[in-house]
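Lab notebook, entry 317. We have the chain sequence and a SMILES string for magnesium ion, and the next step in the workflow is to get a structural model of the bound complex before anyone spends time on docking refinements. Request logged below.

Task: model protein plus magnesium ion, output structure tokens.
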Amino acid sequence: MKDFDGVRIGLFGITGSGKSSFINSVFMALHGEDEGPAVIQSTGAEGTIILEALPVTDGFTLLDTRGFGLLGGDAEKEILAILNGDIKDESGIDRDKTVKTSLTGVGTVLRDETHVVLWFVKANDPRLHKGAYRCHMDFLRQQLLRRGIAPITVITHHDKIAESQEEEVLAKASAATGSPRSFTFFVTNYHVDQEGDYRTHIEAMKVMRSALLVAERYVKIHKQQEQYKRESEAIGNQKVTGPNETVEDFFRRLSSKEHIPFDQIQPIIDKLKKEDITTSKSLSDNWVDIRGDKLMSDWLRGCIEKELADTFKEINL
Ligand SMILES: Nc1nc2c(ncn2[C@@H]2O[C@H](COP(=O)(O)OP(=O)(O)OP(=O)(O)O)[C@@H](O)[C@H]2O)c(=O)[nH]1
Ligand SMILES: [Mg+2]
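Result returned:
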């Protein structure tokens, strides 16, 4: 792709959760180096100070971010700015200044965005066990959902917990970040007391394989949305947006407006067609019967309702 530099993988998580160490684990596994390029925390010193973009190969870049004590207004905004591509590298962060970024992710440029999120959690972090972590993640979970980004959770410090605790830690971490179990991984990074071995390599590579799969899917969907947008702009006013608009066109419009991945919508379109609902007008007429359908999340239901109301507002007058 001409307008595309490669996949951008964002690493996020509270300070000390092992983001930089993980980057080094990846570099060591891929390039056989004795140490990686990322700056690790040491006693009395801060870890990652700024955002660091570390190209691993031509195809992908790891974005090492500075962790926060706990998530809050500024931290959330900074993460959104990195997700949106409004902060692309170390030159972009000045914590004394407010970053301007879109809350909804509208108007972002695909090549600058973060295409996949690795969320780092420390297996022995007491906040995970007290449930504080889950509350703090609420806002970001919603934001990632809106953008169609499925976060991958990396539970570091695997060596610090007993095997009997694994199940509980896995359940709590995946609930906090919203990653399914299949996207939640344990990792023991290289660290001072323990030289990494082949297990660290394998764990790091498993995470990277999933990250690249998720990123590929994200980029594909968003490319497709950009193309739909261009096409519908080209067709311009010729497009029927009134009562005869097809359900496909209605959902295509909604998908590019609200950044909804089209594959979340396709099953709904298929079902509507089976029920002979082929235009946005018949969707509107039959909405009372359809709105309870389990294929729709509450958020998507709200978006459809709003769009139907907007579409038929003028006609009903
Ligand atoms: N035992 C153990 N220690 C680890 C592991 N991963 C990281 N560490 C140690 O945890 C500390 C913090 O690791 P970093 O990689 O600097 O954490 P970070 O998330 O990059 O921190 P910030 O840059 O401040 O956000 C360092 O002392 C690492 O050596 C692990 O899997 N097991
Ligand atoms: Mg760091």
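Notes for the group: The first strand starts at residue 7 and ends at 13. Worth checking against the assay data. The mean pLDDT is 81.
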